[in-house]
Amino acid sequence: MADNENKVAAGALMLVAGGIIGAGLALLFAPQSGKKTRKDISRYAKKVKHKADDVVDDFADTVSDLVDTVGEKAADILDKGKDMAYDAKKDLLKAIEEGQSRLEKQRAKLSKIIG
């Protein structure tokens, strides 16, 4: 078990060392000066920052539009629910009145039968 751990540690160390050596060789054999490379990196970083800002702004606008749309739909549903509740209340009152009318008719019939 310890032997496997040593092999993994040695492999990781060799990988890191290879990366460092490769980076050093790349700098030695680079076709341009370090100053120009730093300027290029700086320009590229600025471009990436501007693109990221644009993406963030677009995302924020999209989320804002989505929130507005959901709010409008919720208000519409709430209004429809109020209208439906009012209509249901009217229908219920009508049914109760009809029921009272029928009960009154049945009471009148029973009164005539009973005397």
TrEMBL record:
Pfam families, per database record: YtxH
UniProt superkingdom: Bacteria
Keywords assigned: Membrane, Transmembrane, Transmembrane helix
TM regions (residue ranges): 12-30
Keyword presence, Transmembrane helix: yes
The keyword Transmembrane appears for this protein: yes
Signal peptide positions on this chain: none
InterPro entries per UniProt: Desiccation-related_membrane, YtxH
Coiled-coil regions listed in the entry: none
Name of this chain's protein: YtxH domain-containing protein
Protein species of origin: Geomobilimonas luticola
